[in-house]
Amino acid sequence: MYCTECGTQLDDNAKFCTKCGADQTKAAAPAAAVPAPVQSQSITLEPIAPARKPAALKIVSIVAAAAIALGLGVAGFIFIPKLLAGSRPKANNCVAVTLDAIENIAGLSSFEYKIEVDGGEENFAISGYLSLGKDLYDSAFELRADSGDDSYRSETRALFHGGHLGTYSSSFYDDWGDYESYEYMAVEELLEGVFDMLSEMGIDVDAIGFDMRNLVKNGRFNNDEFNKISEKLSDLFDPSTLSDLLDDFGADEFADDLDISKYLDKLPKIGEELNKMVEGFFYVACEKEAFLSEFVSGLDVAKNKDSTTYKFAVNPSKLAGSLTKYIIDNVTKYPEISGLLEEIADSRKMTLDEFLSFASYNMRVAFEEMGDAGDIRFSLTVSKDRLPENLTVSFDTESWDYDYSTGEYKTSALTVSVRITLSNHNKVKPDLDEIENFMAIANKNAD
Prior knowledge:
By secondary structure, the protein is an alpha+beta fold.
């Protein structure tokens, strides 16, 4: 038989097309006496031009079901062992160095930071410091934000210390005059919304034994505490609530056919395989210049005495395409992930090959529909131990302006640039007297 949509030769009993994914049971095409195709783990990714593109719902259903089943929902995404953690290969390609630099921030006990955003007329700056102490309450975090133009100016300061958050904000409008306010609150109050959400998902929040102080230990973020919370959440999570999540993503058809709950115990192993898969892409495959050049261009590396600067551009659409192809080509090397995908495929009356081909096609269509938004440009300076010193990210977009004379919106080219500077690594010593004085004023004047 042949596919009713794209004309691909299929097994006479096939329910779905192995190329475009079209349902063959709704309108059967004239059968042809052809031998059944041989199944293979090699997936063909050549362009396909079906008469009708698969519905967007199919794309969402597959992606949402796989993501939620892999623990990328509320119960898994936050608490799965973080990607790229562990004894990964040493890599020197620009993307791997950038990921290393970002991750190494978590290993600092203190630093000063400044973030400057230039978006044409919309410019603002955020600065401050982070200083970790013996526990979270002994730590300090400061944020200062400044923004404005010819008719408006605003200044904000926020300080966290001793389990409380104090804020001050002031602004001046040419038309309205001055305004200022203070806020002061216990951080536990900010968590009430999160706890309410977890309770609605069937999790006994009190049984988690969550203590914010333990999130920091002796000047470092305490990974052991995060892992303990992760394990508690996995034990307390009610798998039946996954059906509601699937419904929200338009993937309710999987809720009845796939028993996702049994995969909750496998989240740690699935997380490890996800780590290895991502490491394989960024730390092994990207070491090959030909592979990296599929989505990276304009690479320039300048080495100085104490630092190295990397300048390069990444095309998001091409990166997504390369990553998708890499995952599909290598997924059978990971037994936990491929086992999950096999069950998803079986629920769709597909083989794993059929499902991977179906998913591959739908992802390509999704990328085509999104279009090419252009390159994202990076400039990164790192120290010898790959601590970030300066990171600038810029991209081109469009600005929409309203023309009052014509009553129409006009578009113009706009370049958005974000510059992040980190300094005084492990050398910040906050002024505790000044912090206490600010907190006292915020507490006294809070609305």
